[in-house]
Amino acid sequence: MIADPEYAALSARILRAAAPNLDEVRATARTCADARELWERLVARELIDASWLEDPRREFEVIESDLSRRYPIDRSTVTSEVASMEAAITLGADAEGVTTAESLAREIAAGLASWRGHQPDRVRWWVASDVASKAAGAAGELSPLVTRSPTLRAYYALAIAETGQSRRTARIDVAQVSAAAAAARCSLGLAQQLATDLESQRQWQIAVEDGWRYNRVEFSRLSCPFRALLALWERGYVLVDIDAKAVTLGARTL
After folding, report:
1. Cα-flanking dihedrals φ and ψ of residue 124, to 5°?
2. What is the pLDDT, as a whole number, of residue 36?
3. Distance between CA 130 and CA 141 in Å, rounded?
4. Per-residue confidence band for 165, with pLDDT thresholds at 50, 70 and 90
5. Partners of 128 in beta bridges
6. Do 162 and 115 meet the contact criterion of CB atoms below 8 Å apart?
7. Which range has the top average pLDDT, 5-9, 128-132, 167-171, 210-214?
8. How many whole angstroms separate alpha carbon 96 and alpha carbon 235?
């Protein structure tokens, strides 16, 4: 099977945020006692917006790492303060990308609301640390960031089921997904999730072009989250979950 060029381009961005200010942020971090002080310094240097210090719409998931468990996200607490120096560096180095990712997350949630899904305005960040990465297993890959939301999983199934009889697109080669996971140092499941999002977007477009309907409503008039999901992948971030409280986004520690 011929490799899919669109998937190749997107997979090259898996958990690879642009982080244009990384060198400056790291240099600043070396002079700071904690994450809060780092963000205050970044505000003073106009690398991040002052609202980041007290933003009620942003919170952080702090992972309680346990090397005996494969999924450290199962043990976590939530805080309104930036979770760690690593998280402060990772997000602060890509301020524009973070702001865009949060906007895309809210767009996805808004689209799901029309399907009786949650529409939270708050974004929760999970920035995986080195310890959390090691907890994924001997291979040292990043602990799988998978979509846990039943609402979103049901939405994938809905979109694909309703377009099942329309024109089919070529499926992305399994070997290409495996290669993408290895290149990105992520789980196979995460690389497959990207393939699912891309195919779902293509199937949705086919449904629009072929005039398919759901409950007598044309697909062209229905809310589709896949465009925003693919844009989120392109920014180097992933959607982890959506619940009544928050949209959770994942980022890899820089």
Report:
1. -110, 130
2. 94
3. 10
4. low
5. 252
6. no
7. 5-9
8. 10
- Average pLDDT over the chain reads 81
pLDDT band at 148 (very low <50, low <70, confident <90, very high): low
Starting at the earlier edge strand, list the strands of the sheet with 238-242. Answer: 76-79, 58-63, 123-128, 247-252, 238-242
The CA distance from 220 to 214, in Å, is 10
Assess whether pLDDT exceeds 60 at residue 70.
no
Structure tokens at 196: 């699912």
Q: DSSP letters along the chain, please?
A: ----HHHHHHHTTTT----TTHHHHHHHHTT-SSHHHHHHHHHHTTSS-GGGGG-TTEEEEEE---TT-S-GGGSEEEESS---HHHHHHHHTTHHHHHHHHHHHHHHHHHHHTTT------EEEEEE-HHHHHTT-TT-PPPP-----HHHHHHHHHHHHHTTTSPPPPPPPHHHHHHHHHHHT--HHHHHHHHHHHHHHHHHHHHHHTT-EETTEEGGGS---HHHHHHHHHTT-EEEEE-SS-EEEEEE--
Amino acid at 161: A
Question: What are the tens digits of pLDDT across the range 166-199?
Answer: 677 677 888 999 999 889 888 788 888 899 888 8
Considering just the CA atoms, what is the radius of gyration of the chain in Å? Answer: 19
Task: Provide the 10 A C-beta neighbour count for residue 17.
Answer: 20
